[in-house]
Amino acid sequence: MNRLESLTEKKLREAIENGEFDNLPGKGEPIDLKENPFEDPDLRTVHRLLRNAGFAPAWIEERKDIDVELETALTKLTRAWDLFREGRRTASESEWERSVREFRQQVAELNERIKIYNLKAPAVVFHRKHIAADAIIETISKANG
Fold it and tell me: Residue 30 gets which letter from DSSP?
């Protein structure tokens, strides 16, 4: 027995080598992940009904909405930069600056929503980082010439 191997680990290893776990029910089948073992049993039926109807908890829906609105804002800002850079339209510097102001305003609103979302999320691993508007603006203007 290896010094680092405990008695329990040794017994488990020997049992596996002897095939004592080969005839267990469910062997070779995928694990059923439909139900969360950590979920409150009283709410399990309600959650299953909501999930089957296409609903998710409010905090998940909020995150999806934030992501969609950010993507829309990024698309608008990128288009405004393309117009300003390429001069396809007579996009002036003031129009670009207006687009940047609008983007910063949207990001400020989204960051407020992110603060509220982070309070609703059940664990820190689900928290969303705040959006850095200036870094995004710089990235768009550098990446697109």
Answer: P
The whole-angstrom separation of Cα 79 and Cα 53 is 37
Q: How far apart are CA 55 and CA 71, in angstroms?
A: 22
Amino acid (1-letter code) at residue 111 = N
Q: What is the pTM of this model?
A: 0.64
pLDDT digits 0-9 by tens, 25-60: 877 788 777 777 777 888 888 878 887 888 888 888
> In this structure, what token pair is assigned to residue 123?
């664990």
Which tokens go with 94? 């003031």
Are 132 and 70 within 8 A, CB to CB?
no
d(CA 96, CA 50): 44
- The pair of structure tokens assigned to 119 is 């309070």
